[in-house]
């Protein structure tokens, strides 16, 4: 396994954890409307999840070239 493959896997892990954080934030909100309000208010948990998904996607895209 090369270093690029390891970093590619790291991107998938980061994106997966980001999705898990977003799902956790949704379950903490209780309802979809409460989740939407939290997103609009700039919930740090949701922002961390989005950043992890975007960062993981960027790592995946970089090493897929």
Offer a quick outline of the entry.
The protein is mainly alpha-helical and 65 residues long. The protein contains 3 helices and no strands. It is elongated.
Explain how this protein is built.
With 65 residues, the protein is mainly alpha-helical. It contains three helices and no strands. The protein has helices at 3-29, 32-41, 44-63. The longest helix has 27 residues, at 3-29. The radius of gyration is 14 Å and the shape is elongated. The protein starts with a helix and ends with a helix.
Fold topology:
Blueprint: H1 3-29, H2 32-41, H3 44-63
Helix pairs in contact: 1-2, 1-3
Features:
single chain, mainly alpha, 65 residues
**Poorly predicted parts:** none
**What would the principal axes of the Cα set say about the shape?**
elongated
DSSP helix fraction:
over 70%
Query: What structural class is derived from the secondary structure elements?
Result: mainly alpha
Question: What about the largest sheet?
Answer: none
Distance N to C terminus: 17 Å
N to C succession of SSEs: HHH
Q: What is the β-strand count?
A: 0
Query: What fraction of residues sit in β-strands?
Result: under 5%
Mean pLDDT: 86
Count of helix runs: 3
